[in-house]
Amino acid sequence: MTEEFRSGFVTLVGRPNVGKSTLLNQLVGSKVAIVSDRPQTTRTAIRGVRTTPDDQIVFVDTPGIHKPRTPLGERTNERAVATLGEVDVVCLLVEADAPIGAGDRYVAGLVHQVPTPKLLVVNKIDRAGKPAIVEHLATAARDLGDFDAYLPLSARTGDAIAALLGEIASRLPEGPRYYPEGTVTDQPETFVAAELVREKLLAVARDELPHSITVSVEELEDIPDRDADVDDPAGILRLRANISVERDSQKGIVIGRGGRVLKDAGTAARQELEALLGVRVYLETRVRVERDWQRRAHALDRLGY
To answer: pLDDT value at position 173?
Structure first.
């Protein structure tokens, strides 16, 4: 480590569905947050880590800040707002292909309440022409207040990501490596597995139950891998995914005809998890009805929200 090694924490904020999770994955260079075109997919603050010889940036992807309709919405809002005063740089995301709206102005107002350096990121430029992007930057500067830098980019394609990283790195203080080199997230395996299962289910049941489904995963006793090298005792990571929905009818949607939806989602999640962790995974799935869990404080506590 050099004497001028820099490190710090950066939060990504914005209204729902502006591309925060996609941007986090792009910045880290690995998938650490699930991605869906349904708003409010992210429910907890997820950390992703990018380390270079000169700096380490810990990114915090927050839930989209929105007008809450349930106790779950209130809690996710609280988690997002709480990160603003605890980081070294705040990145506010807006969309290049959508007008600046009341939700953007509301989040910008919260951002301006803290003295933290602020960057305005205009995402999804791959969906807008250059004249529209220029006009959007001017509108954002007028409607959302002063920022330290204005950065148009595409989280999906990676266009102009280097410019954002440069702006962030220039504002980091000198500091230590908070995480060992090679770390891309501080989330436990069970959390990553739960998020992957939820992502796969949202992909096939996006209209029926985007907010009514939650997944928790517990690690079970390891199973010896009889096919593994005798010198590699790693075995198989055995996990149980407990999938909760709010209605009996939703349980049928998640399971699917002949169990096909649940089986396909579990297989896709398992394969992605094995590639991410580099170990064999056994993933057991169970579905249960937890009536109105989003609206009951006791259920939210038990489910980890």
So the answer is: 95
Q: Are strands 236-245 and 280-289 parallel, antiparallel or unpaired?
A: parallel
Q: In what order do the strands lie in the sheet with 236-245?
A: 214-219, 236-245, 280-289
- The answer to whether residue 1 scores a pLDDT higher than 50 is no
C-alpha–C-alpha distance, residues 163 and 181, integer Å: 23
Paired strand residues for 149: 119
As a whole number, mean pLDDT of residues 278-303 equals 75
Question: With pLDDT > 90 as the criterion, what percentage of the chain qualifies?
Answer: 30
Most distant pair of Cα atoms in the chain: their distance: 65
* Phi and psi angles of residue 229, each rounded to the nearest 5 degrees, phi first: -60, 135
Tell me how long the chain is: 305
Burial of 142 (0-12, 13-18, 19+ CB in 10 A): exposed
109-122 pLDDT tens trace: 889 988 999 999 99
Q: Distance between CA 23 and CA 28 in Å, rounded?
A: 9
Which pair of tokens denotes residue 35?
Answer: 């991605």
- Which of 90-99, 232-241, 247-256 bottoms out in mean pLDDT, i.e. has the lowest? 232-241
Burial class (CB in 10 A: 0-12, 13-18, 19+), 113: exposed
